[in-house]
């Protein structure tokens, strides 16, 4: 019997552990206070436990290219003439250029948002023919009544509703929508899925290496809490000194108030 135990001991000593895939994680205790105080979580009464596990699921199983820095490469020169820190982006709904930082509209109504298949000759809106010229009716009906197309439009509209609590740009919102559509696990409700996709974008830079977290827990060291990723106001009012997020807000803060 002793010889058998010795053989088992030799096998264990000579066996090299297989490398285990590690991921970046964010511990629950580090993100709990941030999630509890977030207006999106409180308004829709989202379970913090479910939201945390869903954020980890997005990190491990879903690929996303969203960035919390408004999708601009590092070193890009700001193009807004008002705040000098934002970038002019296309508002696809209104057809104008809007600053991603202060919301300045510079070219309202100058972008053509008419459909490409419309005739070059202007036709009154009330007398335009139904369908698309040159496209068969059966194909037009198939495109307009596609269940997948209707689902994508519905979920995008709901994401835009949730975006009132996040403030994403249109490009970032489309990226979040793509991540949500690639979610095949039905273990979470829609609110948790969408909130997790959006929270993952803003918390991605604060994820920690799994081995680093295990080492901290083993040594009983303190893990850093998540910092609020919302930008801090950097522009001061020239009269009262209160801080604001844009130069325009600071300039007009005390203009219409009596001293």
Descriptive tags:
single chain, 259 residues, mainly alpha, two-stranded antiparallel ribbon, 10 helices, 6 strands, 6% strand
Radius of gyration: 26 Å
User: The biggest beta sheet, please?
Assistant: 2 strands, antiparallel
- Portion of residues in beta strands equals 5-15%
Q: Which consecutive residue ranges, at least 5 long each, have pLDDT under 50?
A: 67-71
- Domain count, please report it: 3
Notes on the structure:
The chain is flat, with a radius of gyration of 26 Å. Strands 1-4 form a two-stranded antiparallel sheet. A two-stranded antiparallel sheet has the order 2-3. A two-stranded antiparallel ribbon has the order 5-6. The N and C termini lie far apart (95 Å). It is mainly alpha-helical and 259 residues long. The longest helix is centred in the middle third of the chain and has 16 residues, at 147-162. It has ten helices and six strands; from the N terminus they run H-E-H-H-H-E-E-H-H-H-H-E-H-E-E-H. It has three domains: 21-62 and 147-228, no CATH class; 77-111, no CATH class; 229-259, no CATH class.
